[in-house]
Structures
1.
Amino acid sequence: MATKSKSKKAYFCKSCGNEFAQWMGKCPACNEWNSLIEELVIKEDKQARGRAPMKAESKKALPLSEIHREENERIPTGYGELDRVLGGGLVPGSIVLLGGEPGIGKSTLTLQVAMELKSKVLYISGEESLQQIKMRAERLGNMNPACLLLNEVNTHHILSQLEEVRPDVLVVDSIQTLYSPQLDSTPGSISQIRECTGEMMRFAKETSTPVILIGHITKDGNLAGPKVLEHMVDTVLHFEGDRNHAYRLLRSTKNRFGSTHELGIFEMAGDGLHEVLDPSKVLTNSFEEEYSGIAVGAMLEGLRPMLIEAQSLVSSAVYGTPQRSATGFDLRRLNMLLAVLEKRGGFKIGAKDVFLNIAGGLRVEDPGLDLAVVAAIMSSYLDMAIPEGTCFAAEIGLSGELRPASRISQRVSEAAKLGYKRIYISSYGPQDMDKENRLQIIKVSRLQDVFAGLFAGA
Ligand code: TYD
Ligand code: MG
């Protein structure tokens, strides 16, 4: 069918995926500047479009009361951490897009799921040969005899295989390698990604099969392809972490079937990814000796409380301009906290180099970790260790006031569960906290009060 069509160029917006006949500086659809790029497409004839397996029967509008909600029974993936992020498992007919940097473990995670699922899975890889996948599966140890592999990028061949195999779950690694013969542009181009996702989506909706698509991300951390890709799918997951660390975090940035506040934690080992069920234990250390510059914060990732270590080093600046560096923490927020320490706490920290590191390679955005960060910095500055069994949960305001961290009771009970002896929280928070009697709750309203308690004698 492609032989009769004539080739033509079109311009696609990188941001919204719309197609235009000519180049413009600004996309008329989404007003993004400089987002149109040229791609070669084949003008599809109407028949080619018609082969798309979408049923075109006309539909009638219905009142809500007459709509019967099919109990969407979820398919458990075999990994509780993943299920929780998905909102309770895979929903039939839904499309999940899993994005992440190269080498972070997307293929490993999906292959593990394919091996763990009790149903027929079709794993399509456009990136790796069947031998490579087999080798990886052997490394993971667990084999699902009902998992079929296919090395194919042409979506028409894939659709015909899908009709033959009729899998219960479909995995595509990756959407950027797929190629629809309907279009002449290269795999990974905006028009191809849009078309291929559309074809996979029609398959998912028509057969009520859950589909997991793996997606590449660009240098700046966005999913490669048109933004519209994220609108098309039901769930967008991001797999992230520091490649030098073993921990990997799974977050959802969009979920039509669950909350986007959940977080899954995995650890990459020699035999694949393992779930980290008790993150606080691995993110804090217990040393024989007491070290200065370490403070433990009770933080919240999504809705999950966990304790994490902030490590800091404060030293005299060797060069003219003091260095500030933060790993896993926003540098601007660190600078803000240092300014507060200088101005409100009266500590001459402006001329010091300050290094901050959050344990485990995690990236923390929770402002409730502020107090732990400041305590770690002060501990290093004064070279005095923070007493063992102490943790912190409070946000710091610009006047040096301590503001309550969100869901403070969950943080306190997590600290109590892990055997911490005392926690510093803001005195402006809820007042009924004293019921937890297993650990001492120290309520403070100003930074100075914290230091007076921690570093008495300094
Ligand atoms: P991979 O799943 O190929 O990443 P992606 O699909 O996101 O590009 O993961 C590759 C990395 O994981 C690779 O550097 C090797 C490492 N790895 C392990 O450490 N242990 C294992 O058991 C496996 C399968 C991979
Ligand atoms: Mg891969």
2.
Amino acid sequence: MALTGTRRFQNYIDGEWVDASNGDTFESVSPANGETIGVFPKSGAEDVDRAVAAAKAAFEEWRLVPAPKRGEILFRFGQLLIEQKDDLTDLMTHEMGKVKAEAGGDVQEAIDMAYYMAGEGRRLFGQTTPSELRDKFNMSVRMPIGVVGAITPWNFPIAIPSWKMLPALVCGNTVVFKPATDTPLLGERFVELLDEAGLPKGVVNIVHGGGGAVGDRLVRHPDVPVITLTGSRETGVEVMRNAAEHLKHVHLELGGKNAIIVLDDADLELAVEGILWSAFGTSGQRCTAASRVIVQAGAYDALESKLVAAAERLRLGYGWEDDTDVGPVINKSALEKIHSYTEIGKDEGAKLLTGGEVATGNGLGDGYYYRPTIFGDVEPQMRIAQEEIFGPTTALIRVRDFDEAIRVSNGIKYGLSSSIFTRDVNKAFRAMRDLQAGITYINAGTIGAEVHLPFGGTKDTGNGHREAGQAALDVFTEWKSIYVDYSGKLQRAQIDTEEQPSP
Ligand code: UN1
């Protein structure tokens, strides 16, 4: 990759590339080897205000562009993503650290979303329904809302912006986008391509900088009626509180503490593959990662030994090298947090089966690498089985039977993803009914959601909304019900209706 090094990047506001008004900057640094990726504006409230004003003005015209035309711009964006897929994938292995196959998947998820939402431009269905009165026509339509503040995380630096911005745009909203400070260049590339696809100026704006300055201003800004955030539970609570003043629409996608259940009758080889992929893929840095494995007693010993052996075969390294299985974690504080949970697990009396340490050999010391870590004999109430670690650490919990497995799986505050490995169709269906989560997988791990189904979770994972799928449209539109009376006379609903048969 041609690294940009100390090249300075800018905000994009009202169709112009501009510095932060205070002139401050921050660097994006690779978690893989410490190389500098680029220098970005460390913006403040003034920059947010300018971007919001631009987006607010652009909304008046963009909302009138026919939705199929808006969809065609997204289609073109999807094509540009395909052309740029290799470059974006390579950049992602450097800026975010995930391995090449997964980085390609991240870009692919945005391509899928672009095509899906492009098609939505010709649907955006409402309802037509009969009226209780003669010569009257009733329907409901989706209306765009206005300026959307999109605050995105670093773990899916291309996919998650697409989940938020593409449905927002096809519905006729305009956007102010604040990407994570760990992956600003991927955020900037995303916006460059949207611009190239033909979005009018002001429709999408990017303002780089921290959550405290940029994010908070967006959340409190009176002219930003919709906030969509993927982040931590703590940030979600703060965003909801601060957005309450203006009664904003707030969409939150927060944490997970997802479990894979393995019953005695499961295909163990398949289960091990599913666990490895879900626990250690993306170095465990997915909201959907499997940080708990709930195993029925009859399968426990065999599963433990197969899983530990397989985890020890995983090769840590740079994401851009073909034979790397697990890349770095995002930064130093993440590495420290992950390691602190290893100490917590040991103190709680869980058995450290493998990993549990920072990896340093073969040049890895220049980045932030943590060995895939598995704890055995974990009790469901231990902190390592309750709190989101967001790293390559998973906890094996032994249970007696199916009912206990479901109870343990549900015994957490989050409710994002869930999974069960079993060959018993009855138990699989009971799990589909009883697991308290927004997503349930049967005979697959906890990761791998597709863009045309709703994505999100129950309980503390969010606030009841979903992104992706048709559900995303509900976040970015308001319903309007329309009544057209063509009788030429005053007809009073509930009063001038036809006679009912007497009871
Ligand atoms: C996330 O971790 O926030 O299902 C998103 C998956 C991916 C998306 C994860 N398609 O794991």
